Every structure is written in C-alpha cells, then in structure tokens.
Amino acid sequence: MKKSEAPVGVIILAAGLGKRMHSPLPKVLHEIGGQPLLCHLLDRVNEVLPKSSIAIVVGHQRETVEASIRSRPEYAALDLTFVHQPEQKGTGHAARCAMDSSWGEQILRKKGAVLILPGDLPLVPGSLIQQIAAPLRRAEVLRLLTSELPDPTGYGRVVRRGKKGGVLRIVEEKDATPREKTISEVAASIYLFQAAFLRFALQRLSNQNAQGEYYLTDLIAQASRTRKKHDILVWTHPEDLRGVNDPWELAIAGRILNERIVREWARRGAKFVDPLTTWIDVGVTLGAEAVISPGVILSGKTRIGARATLGPNVVLKDVTVGEGANVKTGTTAESSEIGERAQIGPYAHLRPESAVGIAAKIGNFVELKKTSIGDNSSVAHLSYLGDAQVGRNVNIGCGFVTCNFDGRIIDGQRKHRTVIEDDVFLGSDCQAVAPVRIGRGAYVASGSTITEDVEAESLAIARTRQVNKPGYARKLKEK
Ligand code: UD1
Ligand code: CA
C-alpha cells in the first residue's frame, strides 16, 4: 500500500472559548499584527498547502468565527469547511468531530494524511508546516512535533523510552507526576496522522484524566501500545511554537511577530530608528529607504513609498504615502492618500477619504475630512477642511475653516461641499460657509467669511471696514 503524498486534510482546532483570555471574544479571533490569531495560521497553510481540504473545528461563538474567516477575500479560493463541536470536551474530541463529519468521510476515502494544528499558535512558520506535512514513511501512522523549552510549564511533556528512545506517551501538565514535570521536551500539539489510524484511534480515547477531557495527545500512547510506528520532528526554534492562552501571551506573541515584520522590511531596505517601538501590521508594505522614527504605528493596508520619512509617533491606518513624502511628528491619518513629496504635519489629522496631492503641504494642527488637496497646494497652519475639494497651487492662509454643517439637509446631504479652484489665494482667518465655490485664481482677503460663490479672478472681501477714532484710546483710559 502506498502512503500519502501531501496531506489531503488539515484540521484546525478553534472551538474553545479560551477562558484564560477573560474576554467574550473567542480566543482565535484575538488579534496580533492586525489580524486574528486564526488567520495567521490559515495564511501559512494557504502558502504551503493551498490545495488541501481544511476543516476548522468551531464551537464557542462559531457564527462569529466563521463569519470573520468567510468575510476575507484572501481565503475565497481555499477549500474550507467549518465543523461544529457542540461541547468543548477536549482537543481529541474536537478532532473526532472533524473525522466523524462528512468532511472526515471524504478525507478517509482519499486515504491520505491529516495535519492537525491548534488555532492558537500564530507564530508557526510555513517551513514548519512544510516539514511536518512531508509524506509519512511506510507503516508510520503519525508524526509528532516536539521542542525543548526552557520553561515547559503548561505544555504536554514528551515521555520517552529511555533518554533518546521512542516516544511512549505525552502527559499533560495537570496529569504529570513531579518527575514528569521536570521533562523539558514538550509536544506542540501539531501532528500528522494517517487518516484511517486517526479516525480509529479517536474513537477509542477515554476521558479518565485530571481534566475529564478527551486528549488528542493520548493518541501517541495508543500508537505506542499497539506498536504502530511514528516519526518525530524535533523543532529547534521554540519561539515558533508559542501558544496564546492569556492576554500576556497574546502581547508576547504580538511583540515577536512585530519584530519579525520589522526585520523583514529592514532586510528589504526600510530603515528603522528603533524597531522595538515601531509597530507594523502584516498587511503593511514599505518601500526601500523609507525612514521610520520611533513610536510609529502602521496598520491595516498602509503603503509607504520609497524614501518617504515618517517622524516620531506617526499613526497611519489604511493610508498610502507617496515616494519621498515627509510625514512629521505626531501626525495621524486614516483611509487617506498622501502624494509624492508631500509634507504633512507635525500634528496633522487626516480623517477618512482625504487625499493630498503631489508636493502639497499640510502643516501643523490642520484637520482634513473627506477633502482633497491638489498638487502643490498649501494649508500650512491651524485649519479645518471638511467635504472640500481644493485645486492645484492653492494657498490657504492660517486659520481657515470650512463651515460644512449648518443643521440643514440640502439635496439629501447633511454636510455641504466647499470647492476651491486652482490658483486661489485665501488670506488668513477666513471661513467658507458651504455649499460654496471659490473660482479659479480668485483672491480672498484675510478675515473674510465667504457665504456666496466667488467668481474666477475676482477679489472677495467679506468683513466690516475698519474705523479709526483718533485720541479715543486716551479717553477710554481716563473713564
Ligand atoms: C494543548 C495540548 C498540549 C500542548 C499544547 C501546545 C492537549 C490535551 N494538550 O494544550 O499537550 O503542549 O496544546 O500548545 O491537546 N480546542 C477545541 N476544542 C476543545 C478544546 C480545545 O477546539 O474541546 C482548541 C482550542 O480552541 C485551541 C486548541 O484546541 O485552539 C488548543 O486547546 P488549549 O486548551 O489551548 O490546549 P492547551 O492547554 O494549550
Ligand atoms: Ca493552547
């Protein structure tokens, strides 16, 4: 009989609530690097075994877990089945739910191997999955992955026959004798099984143990008792196997992941002043020679162009930054675009759907919302522009405000638009009461409140005339 090639089935265990997280959110949906734990694992499976048939065992809030995975277009091409584990009776029971389901029937018919992964190991690299998933040798019924941990507390310990002999069984922390607890070789809960053995052995599991659960780990003792052969993959990077069971472990896994992401971008040419205080999500990309200062947080689908500079504490979510742009200290932006060579900040705020053109300038304490600023235009100080469209080569003086909300709804719009055409010059301290349009090349005098459209090339002054009363100041003081 020929044994399997690549595993035909992958089971991911994700039914537990994760009591130790102290959260109503199912454990596998807690995030590091901007995406749920479960997605990190799925991404690796997708890379290494894109053609496998994947069963995700769900229980606690299974609708939420399923909806979160199904909503991601990157998994649309995966062969994904969600299997229900109605009660969380242990990892062995979870695997059994998958093997006893119609998904399991199909896998059995294909006579292949089944890879089992726990959903709470987000740092497992693709190379590990590739190695554990290599075909089993003739007569082998399983391969288990073990690793030496400096602190094995909480993990299942690997009990061998003699020091380097075959594996006899895996004993859980709660069932281990004091002597067994001194074993530093642990099982990571990652296995490859011959499907027929898996199905058969799962049905024979008992729950006579400290936690009254059906342990997946007991399959090793079963194989050893019945003299079935196994293979062992010893993994020498214990960091890859860090599980997430509580918020502290979530934070540590997040930090390890972040370091990996930063390292990868640094190898591709980005420069980081302080990798430890820079946070970058998995979906972010950085161009060569981008310079990233301490305290920068880049999330979602943010794209940083080559040679762009991000100053200290810049926070960007779903933002595109053009090549050579300079985003200065404390600027925060979301769902916006920053053009090539633009200068933003310090302390600017770009709210969603804003766009800043090539070589444009947005200065300190300027807020944009649903606003586009054309190439080479400048809004240098202390301004608010909401629902505005600003053309090219426009100069907006200090303290400009678009009055985009007047409590009325016009043409179904609650907020009203301000249009400022190309080459306009706006003096300092102006307001535009929207809806309003300032025509091309117009000039607006300082301190004007613009309530009506301004024609192209004209000068608008909308303020009361100054009156000087000679000697009046002395009179006032004498009063
Ligand atoms: C498990 C292993 C332990 C191993 C450790 C490595 C068992 C009995 N123990 O312990 O040997 O060292 O992982 O990380 O296998 N789950 C279900 N249904 C259940 C129970 C759990 O789907 O009924 C899922 C959980 O959602 C989780 C995964 O299985 O994603 C692992 O469960 P967890 O409770 O975290 O196991 P550990 O105590 O970490
Ligand atoms: Ca765990």
Structural features, described:
- The chain has 479 residues and is an alpha/beta fold.
- It has ten helices and 39 strands.
- Among the domains are: 8-241, Spore Coat Polysaccharide Biosynthesis Protein SpsA, Chain A (Alpha-Beta Complex); 403-479, Hexapeptide repeat proteins (UDP N-Acetylglucosamine Acyltransferase, domain 1), CATH 2.160.10.10.
- Helix 3 packs across helix 7 (195-202).
- The mean pLDDT is 95.
- The site of calcium ion has 4 residues, from loops.
Brief synopsis:
Among the domains are: 8-241, Spore Coat Polysaccharide Biosynthesis Protein SpsA, Chain A; 403-479, Hexapeptide repeat proteins (UDP N-Acetylglucosamine Acyltransferase, domain 1), CATH 2.160.10. The chain has 10 helices and 39 strands.
CATH superfamily of one domain: Spore Coat Polysaccharide Biosynthesis Protein SpsA, Chain A
Mean of residue pLDDT values: 95
Broad structural category? alpha/beta
What Rg do the Cα atoms give?
31 Å
Question: What kind of sheet is the major sheet?
Answer: 16 strands, parallel
The gross shape turns out to be elongated
What is the number of strand segments? 39
| Approximate helicity band | 10-25%
Low-confidence stretches: none
For the record, the CATH class of one domain is Alpha Beta
Gross CATH architecture of one domain: Alpha-Beta Complex
* Assembly state of the chains shown: single chain
| Strand-residue proportion | 25-35%
How far apart lie the N and C ends? 112 Å
Number of helices: 10
CATH topology of one domain: the name is: Spore Coat Polysaccharide Biosynthesis Protein SpsA, Chain A
Bound molecules: uridine-diphosphate-N-acetylglucosamine, calcium ion
